[in-house]
Design a protein that fits this description.
Order of helices and strands: HHHHHEE
Distance between the termini: 55 Å
Structural class: mainly alpha
Shape: elongated
Radius of gyration: 28 Å
């Protein structure tokens, strides 16, 4: 994790600056700025368009009774691509454009799924649609809780006319 944070916060900006200098030297400052703004606009448009299309495909899969796993992964990668393209920089734009290519998305998805399956921190639990705490075809909506701490005590019923019903007390330190 520290390596990933290093890459995100230190290496990527340094790479972006180096690319800006090189590209700006080749084509000029204004064309470089135009490319960055153009890809940001394209990324924002893509985010809106692809988000709606992914939502429709996921709904269709659910109507067919299939889990929309592929559609959701596609949507996640398209969202990442759009965010990378909105981020100012040519390096992040290039990575975002790679995420737009379906075979690249599928390869990254397979790699991510394999890594998650190997991880001991990731578990998938499935059950039926047990709505609102009821029991559905797949069992309860939430797994039953394990044994928790037991607090023993006795209940004492207090009537309305009892003097010890929780009202203001004269001997309270807050009243002094």
């Amino acid at each position: 994790m520290p390596l990933i944070l290093f890459l995100i916060f230190i290496a990527v900006p340094v790479i972006e600056i180096a690319i800006f200098i090189q590209v700006g030297g080749l084509i000029g400052v204004w064309p470089t700025i135009a490319i960055v703004l153009g890809t940001a606009f394209l990324g924002a448009s893509l985010l809106r368009l692809q988000g709606l299309q992914t939502w429709r495909r996921a709904e269709e899969a659910m109507r067919r009774g299939e889990p929309p796993v592929a559609e959701m992964l596609d949507g996640i990668f398209l969202f990442i691509a759009a965010l990378l393209m909105v981020t100012p920089g040519l390096f992040t734009d290039a990575i975002g454009i790679l995420f737009l290519i379906p075979p690249v998305r599928r390869a990254i998805g397979r790699y991510a799924a394999r890594r998650l399956a190997e991880s001991s921190r990731f578990h998938v639990h499935t059950s039926g649609m047990g709505g609102m705490g009821g029991v559905g075809p797949g069992g309860p909506a939430r797994p039953p809780r394990g044994p928790g701490p037991v607090i023993e005590g006795e209940a004492e019923e207090i009537g309305e006319n009892d003097s010890d019903r929780g009202g203001p007390r004269d001997n309270s330190p807050w009243r002094q």
